[in-house]
Amino acid sequence: MRSLAITICLLFGLASTAAANVAKDERGWFCGTSEDWELASLRAGSKVVMNNFFYEEKSSAATNMTVLAIKYSVINRSGAKYRMSSQFVGYDKAGMVTFAISVSPVFQLVTEGASTSANDIYVDGPVLAGTAKICTAFAAQSM
C-alpha cells in the first residue's frame, strides 16, 4: 500500500517548473505543442527532473513508413532508484489522435545520475506537422 501511495504522489505531484506553455489538463496529463515541450522541465518529487524533450520524424531503411522518435532526459538527484514510464499522445486541431507511444528509460529503471528515455514507432506518414497538441502522462515509483 505504501508503494501505491508513492506512485500516486509522484504521478500527481509532478510540477511544471519551466514548462513554457505546457500545462496540466483535467485528467492530470501535461499538454503543449512540440515547441512548448522543447522548453519544458518537469519534476517527480523534488529530485527527479525530466527535460530536453525531443520529437523527430525520419525515413525508415526497412519500410516506406515514417519513423516517429521521442526522447527526453531524466536526471535523478536522489539516492533512490525509480521504476518509470510515460505515455505520449498527439492530437490534431480537431482533437483527433495523430499518434500514441510509450517512452521509458532502459529496463524502465532510473538510477542516480542522468539517463535518456527513448522510443520510436512506425507511422503511415509524417504526423508531427499535423499535430497541434502533445499530451504526456508519467508514472514513477521509488524502489
Percent of sequence in beta strands: over 45%
Write down the secondary-structure element order: HEEEHEEEEEEEE
Helix content: 10-25%
Mean pLDDT: 84
Rg, Å, rounded: 15 Å
Unreliably modeled segments: 1-13
* Class derived from helix and strand content: mainly beta
Tally of individual helices: 2
Distance between the amino and carboxyl termini: 13 Å
Largest sheet: 6 strands, antiparallel
Shape: globular
How many β-strands, per DSSP? 11
List keywords for this structure.
6-stranded antiparallel beta sheet; 5-stranded antiparallel beta sheet; 2 helices; 11% helix; disordered N terminus
Concise description?
Residues 1-13 have low confidence and may be disordered. It is globular and about 45 Å long.
What can you tell me about this protein's structure?
This protein is mostly beta strands. Helices cover 11% and strands 52% of the residues. The strands form two sheets. Strands 2, 3, 7, 8, 9 and 11 form a six-stranded antiparallel beta sheet that branches. Strands 1-4-5-6-10 form a five-stranded antiparallel beta sheet. Residues 1-13 have low confidence and may be disordered.
